[in-house]
Amino acid sequence: MKLLGTNTSPYVRKARLVLLEKNIPHTYLIDAPREPGSQVARANPLGRIPALILDDETCVFDSTVIADYVDTLNDTPILIPRTDALARMRVKRWEALADGIMDSAVVVRIEVLREKAFQDAATITRHNDAITRALSHIAEQLGTRQWCEGNAITLADLALTSMLVYLDLRQTERDWRAAHPNLGAWFARMRERASVKATLEN
Ligand SMILES: N[C@@H](CCC(=O)N[C@@H](CS)C(=O)NCC(=O)O)C(=O)O
């Protein structure tokens, strides 16, 4: 299978982390949807990354569906609980929180790239406030736990890691570690994982 994506996209990082943590053989192809010659729109009608192309050309999108699909390919480890409905919901809710922050950070990024006169200050504030609130909620929920849910790594941890890497990349002025030292300590541990290091290297 082939994963199309770019190194800066937080949704792509989440999909890559799932593939790497589960040791699923795949080829990662850098493909920015807006670049001439991109294959993305042919694979995913939405023209977005990540797009996972299976060996029979089936295209899997978006990152939540990729994570769900890839998780069923083996049990080592199980990243999304299969039978406990509440545990499953909680892991997917963490993913929704992380994805929601990514969505808001992308909106802010698009706004700040516009010329100042065309920026919508209210939109920037609304999305930055949502990120601030969601980070507080996450830090409170996480407390001093090693993993977001249960006693082992899940998709929740991978989604949260992808989101925090993106905030460090695009919102360098946001000192979330000072506001939430427990989240900073948790992230420092996650950054030591081979999978996370691999996505940061290329
Ligand atoms: N909800 C989607 C979001 C995917 C998404 O918006 N990806 C961005 C890159 S971060 C994209 O491909 N945008 C289209 C573009 O850049 O033209 C997912 O989880 O996969």
The gyration radius over C-alpha positions equals 17 Å
- By DSSP, the count of extended strands is 4
Q: Which cofactor or ligand species appear?
A: glutathione
Task: Describe the global form.
Answer: globular
**Count of the domains:** 2
Beta-strand portion reads: 5-15%
Strand count, sense and barrel status of the largest sheet are: 4 strands, mixed
Structural class category: alpha+beta
Describe the structure.
- The protein has 202 residues and is α+β, with helices and mostly antiparallel strands.
- The chain has two domains: 2-71, Glutaredoxin; 85-197, Glutathione S-transferase Yfyf (Class Pi), Chain A, domain 2 (Up-down Bundle).
- The chain contains nine helices and four strands.
- Strand 3 (51-53) and strand 4 (59-60) form a beta hairpin.
- Helix 1 runs antiparallel to helix 6, helix 4 (85-113) packs antiparallel against helix 5 (121-142) and helix 4 (85-113) runs parallel beside helix 6 (155-170).
- It is globular.
- The chain starts with a strand and ends with a helix.
- The model has no long low-confidence stretch (mean pLDDT 97).
- The chain binds glutathione (GSH).
- Residues 9, 11, 33-34, 47-50, 62-64, 99, 106 line the site of glutathione.
